Amino acid sequence: MNFNKIIILFLLQKNRVNKQGNCPIRCRITHNQDRKEFSIGLFINPKHWHSKLQKAKPPNDENDFINNELSLIKNKINQAFLFLQVQENEFTVDDVYAQYIGKPITRRVGIISHYSDFLEKYKKLIGIEIKQVTWNKFNYILNDLNDFLQWKYKQKDFYLKDLDMEFIIEFEYYLKVNKQQKQITINKALQRFKKVVKTSVEAKIISTFPFNEHKPKSVKNQIVYLTVEELAKLEQHQFFQIRLQQVADMFIFCCYTGLAYNEMAHIQLKHIVKGFDGNDWIKMVREKTQREISIPILPKSAKIIEKYQDVDSPYIFAKISNQKFNSYLKEIATIVGINKNLTHHIARKTFATTVLLYNDVPMEIVSELLGHSKITITQEHYGKVVQKKVSEHILKLADKLDKK
């Protein structure tokens, strides 16, 4: 129970005297040193008001009516205060006023408290709707929020109802400066935080969505991929170390299939099926989007499958961690002479650009083969590649026309 007292005071607004010489009576509620002042719709001649006794004088019909109304208002406010006292939640003077006028009270729930409840429920969806890695990413944001509240406000929680654009901007600044995060990482963090806050609106904990005016800062990422020449250089090189040759082949395989690391690591012979056209296709569910993908097996990827398929193992490729895979790729890039920070993801980019777009495969098909949930994602990432391809065609056309 909240044992803090409440003070109810009636006062005159003497700067607003009407033609009859009367001025408004206002009510001031004080709770925890916070005040709420409001008009009560009553007027009185200042000469008839006894400030110390908090009543109208002398006794007459008009003053008796005012005194009765003041008594009713005071009793109603005290009842509102008593009602809130027996509740388990903390409340403010604004909540007392809201209860007095019959207005719904915004629940005073903290960001950390609500976020923790969200994570607890979200965890039960692992293996049903989400992956463990997805839950982990949301949990990282909670850790960052805890650190931010200690840094900025020196407190363990912050009321959701007080969450505003200033808080969001300061949190974004904290992630950039204190956590040294890149803008693309910050955008993802705010996107997840936004999702959690939205659930508080749906649960009617808060009435307005503080992210309505927030726009993520745009990030211009340069697509890194292997050119035709670089890909050919990698394909033609024979490595003396078996581990490097295996990683190079796996990388090349992904350059011609667009598979992500986890998909490459888990691909089995059962995922290779005859398509409607009589050719071999890879059919599997993409882990990130849970969408089924169908990818035609090109001749070069077919040769690699033939080279590595093992009757004693259901998997086509030997197990290797993503960290080691990328570490070996750096060795490979140095040996072959590719001046790029080679990672597995570059293989997927190479598939989309060098293998598909530069060979005039339409954007819609590229989006489908990459397993993107929306074509806009593909356009956002690879739009400039298409522009470059158009530019090359125009230059060739200009050169051709110039020779006529």
UniProtKB/TrEMBL annotation:
It comes from the Bacteria. Keywords: DNA recombination, DNA-binding. GO terms for molecular function: DNA binding. Residues 221-399 form the Tyr recombinase domain. Gene3D superfamilies: 1.10.150.130, Intergrase catalytic core. GO terms for biological process: DNA integration; DNA recombination. InterPro entries: Arm-DNA-bind_5 (IPR035386), DNA_brk_join_enz (IPR011010), Integrase-like_cat_sf (IPR013762), Integrase_catalytic (IPR002104), Integrase_recombinase_N (IPR010998), SAM-like_dom (IPR025269), Tyrosine_recombinase_XerCD (IPR050090). CDD domains: INTN1_C_like. SUPFAM superfamilies: DNA breaking-rejoining enzymes. The keyword Acyltransferase does not apply. Belongs to the 'phage' integrase family. This is Site-specific recombinase XerD. It comes from Moheibacter sediminis. The lineage of its organism: Bacteria, Pseudomonadati, Bacteroidota, Flavobacteriia, Flavobacteriales.
